[in-house]
Amino acid sequence: MTRKDFGLNPAVLGQSSWTPTSSPPSTPSPTLLLSDGAIVNATSSPYDRFLATTLTSEAGWGRDLLNITSTDSSSVVWCRNESAMPHEETFVEFYETARFVTGLILYPCICIPGLLGNALTLIVLWERNMRTSTNAFLSALAVSDSIKLINDLLYFLSILLLRTDDTIGNRAYGYLYPYAHFIFSMSVCVSSWLTVSVAVERYIMVCHPTRARHLCSRQRAVTVCVAVFVIMTTLALPSALRYKTVECVVPDTGAIMLEVQLTEMWRNPTFVEAYNWAQNLLRSVIPLLVLVALNTCIISAVRKTRANKKNNSRHRVTVMMIIVILAFLVCITPDAIMSTVFNLGYHEASNLVKGIREFTDTLLAFNAATNFVIYCLFNKVFLQSFQRLCCKTTVTKKWQTEMDESQYKRLSDAKPNFNNNCSPQRL
Questions:
Q1: Cα 324 to Cα 121: distance, rounded to the nearest angstrom
Q2: Closest CA to 218 of 139, 277, 303
Q3: Whether the Cβ atoms of residue 67 and residue 20 lie closer than 8 Å to each other
Q4: Cα–Cα distance list, 183 to 111, 154, 382, 422 (Å)
Q5: What is the rounded CA–CA span in Å between residue 157 and residue 143?
Q6: C-alpha torsion sign, points 258, 262, 265, 267
Q7: 283-314 pLDDT tens trace
Q8: Where are the alpha helices (DSSP H) in 242-311?
Q9: Pair type for strands 243-249 and 256-262
Q10: How many other CB atoms sit within 10 Å of the CB of residue 69?
Q11: How far apart are alpha carbons 2 and 285 in whole angstroms?
């Protein structure tokens, strides 16, 4: 005798492909009696309700049904049979391969060195000679990137558990994913606008140096960073309510599993379309357009003043920021195309889309992990500070301090006054 002989009703969200052979009784009784004396009703766990409605005595379940007064199978949540869904029949191997390559190979190779690099970045930028307005933005960017990398590292652990212990891995994935999606959205939004902020500051310093003294200060930079974190986190809050974790019963085995499903709010097409457009515009489209315009202006200004040796120290920082912005543009563009042009989602999407998402998200993780290398290659003062921290016994010939544009301006203003005061007076 099989389960199909008892007319079970998989009436949860219409996601199960297991068709009942008959309908449950029209007037169910509120309680059921099991052989170990347990009472099963509508408030019981899905597992007990499943046992009470299947009338089976398979070995290993531990309970036999002696007296059943009715079945209440409509309250059982059945796990989605993905293999029976039309869009899940294809690209299964592609998605599994993509998740294996990115989740188990690339993520640990990117996230662990990236977290170490961001920690070193924060330590170096906290040095007294590195406390400038630009470095305030870079410190906040390192914090945001570290949040993203920790989130990706937890994803790696979930995928690893799914391959080693399916039960523990399913619970880890089911409980972590709804929150991980929110952290991902928040960190990407914050990183986007911190990059825009530092690009705006560098544009002012290069293209409008006379205004930089009043507009570019460390205190103002810290205020902007805090505002970016608060506003972008608020914008990403609906992402925390996108998914919910539910217990479900696997029809073929009776096992209890966790499944990630869309919440009722995210089943509203009007809300989903409006929020996705707002988020995509603020997370990727607008930052991309602003960064392209600012980077073009900055590069043009640097090329015009490249011959001026007095500006070499400032130009090195500017070139470093140009590389940071270009790397960000390259890494976020695929994600922007997936989200905005094709309006493709995440967990609820097809295997093809989820497989591509694995690689676009890996690009974002790569961008979050590589800024430390860029700073070392293109910022002599940063590299010198890092070397001094690592090798305190090393004696540097010339210790340099990175200055704000306001400090450059004050020094340039002080030179004429110094010359006037030191000029010989006529007798």
A1: 14
A2: 139
A3: no
A4: 15, 11, 29, 60
A5: 21
A6: negative
A7: 888 999 999 999 999 888 888 776 555 555 56
A8: 269-280, 286-304
A9: antiparallel
A10: 12
A11: 55
Helix (H, G, I), strand (E, B) or coil at 246: strand
Q: How far apart, in Å, are the Cα atoms of 241 and each of 194, 264, 276, 423?
A: 25, 9, 14, 71
Output the pTM of the full model. Answer: 0.74
* More confident site: 98 or 407: 98
More confident residue, 226 or 248: 226
Tokens of 74: 């409509």
Q: Would you place residue 26 in the very low, low, confident or very high pLDDT band (cuts 50, 70, 90)?
A: very low
Structure tokens at 163: 């391959």
Alpha carbon separation from 258 to 49, 80, 247, 293, 358 (Å, rounded)? 16, 11, 5, 46, 22
One-letter amino acid of 16: S
Q: What tokens does 183 get? A: 């952290």
pLDDT for 306 equals: 62
Q: Using CA atoms, how far apart are residues 398 and 421, in angstroms rounded to an integer? A: 29
Q: d(Cα 69, Cα 28) in Å, to the nearest integer? A: 8
Provide the percentage of residues in the chain whose pLDDT is more than 90: 37
Q: How many CB atoms lie under 10 A from the CB of residue 393?
A: 4
* 8 A C-beta contact, residue 27 and residue 229: no
Unique residue bearing structure tokens 């209890």 = 256
Tell me how far apart the alpha carbons of residues 205 and 302 are, in angstroms, rounded to a whole number: 11
Euclidean distance between CA atoms 262 and 271, whole angstroms? 13
What is the pLDDT, as a whole number, of residue 376? Answer: 92
Q: Could you give the angle at the alpha carbon of 328 between the alpha carbons of 297 and 352, nearest 5°?
A: 135
Backbone Cα Rg of the chain: 30
CA distance 126 to 218: 12
CA gap 32, 40 in Å, rounded: 5
